[in-house]
Design a protein that fits this description.
Oligomer: homodimer
Distance between the termini of chain A: 77 Å
Mean pLDDT of chain A: 88
Largest sheet of chain A: 4 strands, mixed
Helix content of chain A: 55-70%
CATH topology of the largest domain in chain A: Tetracycline Repressor, domain 2
Low-confidence stretches of chain A: 1-21
Order of helices and strands of chain A: HHHHHHHHHHHHEHEEHHEEHEEHHHHHHH
CATH architecture of the largest domain in chain A: Orthogonal Bundle
Chain lengths: ~475, ~475
């Protein structure tokens, strides 16, 4: 009944290159699992589920309906990779956690890397978290509590607390012997850290350099000096910047006294980079942090807030229009054309805004080049303003056969597109300076300004020169 | 004159944690360099410039004006890290390349990793590229030409052609000895690849496992089986997905016959992930791929195209309005209120669209959950449609003291917000199915639909029930 060719090929027979569809969780697999769950034919899919990579198990769960997810957890909890819990998208993870006993969560959490475990339990409410922590073995609990003691989205939350550090006076041989004997090593690591007597990091050595060096060479001779140190309370976005900027494979996390307390691996940073870029996209699109797995109620509420803010600005624009009711009554062409002026301004403003928000996010827009960027945007606004003024002026004059109408819409267009360019760059810069994430609120401000200015410029010029 | 505390502290005295401003290129450093370049006091900053990390040298160059950039290159070309060229943002890199002789570029390129070198020269025009390749030593040229033979944005372009592969029958000791002797190793690597007699990869071993294993153990005993193979022509977005999904530190690239030909390191994937997320943001914002460093002319042209498409849709909406000229003349309140209906629909559509585009990009939205997602969006559209219909209905009825106007705008609002939700999800899904990047064109389609439907629903209901 079950055709799980795809899943088997990723896990047993090796992967045939050339067909990217073979990776991940194909739709046919999801369907097969859903059908089997519904029919209660669990053994038919047990091996398929077990053989999946933790990330694929998570993806599979994300695609199931709530009812099937419950059946899935009931049937396969024992077969799942504990890490799958940390790979789940937040709202689905909440759903799964609600299905589990605290002891079951504790057992999974105890098997994860500290950073993944912290990530899973950090969003739970206090009492739930306490229950889980109490069920976790002492050593892991201590590490988890240490991780949780740092601020949300900080380096401390992201770090692994297991790492290899050796004193400066060791040789390569001693280091290798130490690694062969130490049982308590992290599962994956790419660098060894060299510390002084106070546990302050003084160097790093990539593993491949250790492998390529003779046993009797001193560690101090082959290490990279002056490693970049990440304070445990540094924001994850800053950490991601450092890792990217300096091509680090792992970042050294230190406490207030500069003592080494953990390390962050590049694969965790990959997730942070993705998350932060995602956040900008979502905020610019007016959708907060909700993805497609969020509940309908939550989604409706999140979007309502944004739409409500937008309604306020739309009403503001309508008030401007209402001041020119008499003018519109005399020339209804104005009502026909006015949305064009507002819409073009809104789009031009959004373009500039998008560039500005991303350039601020990636630290490309700084106080050194702000003035240059502002004047460049203004120039682009003027040129495109003039171009569209000409186009729209001609279209309007021909459409309604009123030459002056062409001039009026052209002038309004130029004004609004320059204003749009300036608003698009100055508002995010201002918010950034005020310490507010420019992605959050910029687009409401910008479109409010372009709507109000667009309608006002067009209608007031029309009132003066046309009617 | 020159206060380069910041740059010194990142390079000589170690970094004091807690002050993120110490990393990267602070504005004060840019100013100091600009002042020194203008005054011709080059020696004052030579050490500062030389000590900077390649990525910081690139950032510094990006912040200089064109005139200072020319002075900078003239003065410091010899002192720069060749990698800085590959760290430069594209338009600034083009500027720098124009300032250099082919021989100078060739010298820099020859010192870079293959993937970085390919990245630098791939965008040059044919004759320029030829000139540079001819000036590069044979061995590097061969590798570069091999890299360039793969399609743009493919795994083949991203890969390093140096890697360590060992046969299955070797021991850990033999592997370590081989690494100690082989001169032609890549600078950084985290895994060793195990291949069969046909050079087909059969396993991978993280370096730390080699270090922790006794010399006489067989490689085959400690390797990870069935590595994930990346065909050289796979799109970089797919590669990034695999690396992220399966937490790979390096990806094995194979040719058509499954022979190992290179590897892609996770730090190169980090750049791809950033690039792809960036692309979605830029496309959704209607700004193509131009950043803040692009020339004013190019920027104006890129944005013009998008704005021109938007003008077309705005005119379409105006044509709809013009059909109801008589109705508006009789009740000017309609002209005042109609932008609200259109704007709310546009925003609601953009919200759904943003979610859909990202969910498609991250493979969270699939054929398995498309139907569920569509109905969820429709429900959210209905609920928010009703909520805003009530709010706006009351506001409109009170504002103009016409009860029926409230009902009309409420009905139009519900219609437009449901249409917005459906358009926001169906259009990106349709484009994706048709093989078109949904980020490119979705937002034009969605706002066209919400404008047209918004104006038409509101004005036609008004024509029927109000005037």
């Amino acid at each position: 009944m079950l055709e799980n060719e795809q899943s088997q090929s990723t896990t047993e027979d090796g992967i045939q290159p050339g067909d990217a569809e073979l990776y991940g969780v194909p739709a046919s697999l999801v369907e097969d699992v859903a059908t089997a769950l519904k029919a209660g034919e669990l053994d038919a899919i047990r091996k398929t589920v077990t053989d999946l990579h933790a990330a694929d198990q998570a993806d599979l769960m994300e695609q199931l309906t709530s009812r099937n997810l419950r059946r899935f957890i009931d049937a396969f909890l024992e077969d799942l990779d504990p890490e799958a819990l940390s790979e789940l998208e937040e709202t689905v993870r909440d759903e799964v956690i609600d299905l589990l006993e605290p002891q079951e969560i504790a057992a999974a959490v105890a098997e994860m890397d500290t950073d993944d475990a912290v990530y899973v339990i950090e969003d739970l409410d206090e009492s739930e978290r306490r229950e889980i922590l109490d069920a976790v073995p002492d050593e892991e609990r201590f590490e988890l509590e240490a991780g949780l003691s740092y601020p949300e989205d900080s380096a401390g939350r992201l770090m692994q607390q297991d790492f290899i550090s050796v004193p400066t006076y060791w040789t390569v041989g001693q280091t290798i012997d130490h690694m062969r004997e130490d049982e308590d090593l992290p599962e994956d690591f790419y660098e060894i850290f060299v510390v002084d007597a106070m546990m302050k990091p003084v160097g790093t050595i990539p593993l491949n350099r250790i492998l390529r060096t003779k046993r009797d060479v001193d560690i101090a001779e082959i290490m990279e000096h002056e490693p970049i140190l990440v304070p445990a309370n540094m924001d994850q976005e800053e950490v991601a910047f450092l890792v990217q900027q300096y091509d680090l494979v792992s970042a050294l996390v230190v406490d207030d006294s500069n003592r080494l307390i953990g390390s962050i691996m590049i694969d965790d940073i990959v997730d942070v980079i993705q998350e932060e870029a995602e956040e900008d996209i979502m905020l610019l699109g007016g959708v907060g942090d909700g993805g497609i797995h969020e509940s309908t109620f939550q989604t409706t509420r999140d979007r309502f807030v944004w739409l409500f803010a937008n309604l306020g600005t739309a009403i503001l624009a309508s008030i401007v229009i209402s001041q020119f009711g008499g003018t519109i009554e005399q020339m209804v062409a104005l009502a026909v054309l006015m949305p064009i002026v507002a819409s073009m301004g809104g789009n031009a403003g959004t373009q500039t805004l998008t560039i500005a928000v991303r350039a601020l996010g990636t630290k490309e827009l700084t106080s050194s080049n702000a003035l240059r960027t502002i004047s460049r945007e203004a120039v682009v606004g003027v040129i495109n303003g003039i171009l569209f003024a000409v186009i729209m002026g001609v279209v309007a004059a021909l459409w309604f056969d009123i030459q002056m109408l062409g001039f009026v819409i052209a002038a309004a267009m130029i004004i609004n597109m320059i204003v749009a360019a300036l608003a698009g760059i100055l508002i995010p810069l201002g918010l950034h300076k005020a310490g507010i994430d420019p992605a959050v609120a910029s687009s409401v401000f910008v479109t409010t300004i372009t709507d109000v200015v667009g309608f006002f410029a067009f209608l007031s010029l029309a009132a003066k020169y046309l009617v």
